[in-house]
Amino acid sequence: MNGVARGTDTTAHEVLLSEYSCRRRTRRRTGYPSGMDTEELRRFVLARLAEDEERLAEEKLPLLDEAEGRGRLRIIRSDDGSGLLLLPGPIQAATERVPVPFPEKFPLLRTEVEQTRDEALLRLLAAAYDTHHDWQEEWR
Q: What is the Cα–Cα distance from 127 to 106, expressed in whole angstroms?
């Protein structure tokens, strides 16, 4: 099964996506203020992922990979290899882990962003693009 699981400092979520099912287990609330326009945030993240796909096609480093290299977030393989984990901050020294190639993580992240209602996941991914002119401080 392919999928993306994610966790943050303020929430612990586990999401496993497959072609046939989506299961979600939430352990506690995110703590973010309600009333935020998550659709606008979702559009922002999807547009940035698409730009990163274009950057990769031009043989440039995707901004998501750049943010991961700076320790803003980490995308690693799950222990069982069935999916990816999206987590805040560096997990360990960059030399001690093998980065997940962008072409492998892009379709899983795009699918997750399109389908999720998890504001924490959207905020975490959006923060990788906080230097973009469309970034809104309320997403931090």
A: 16
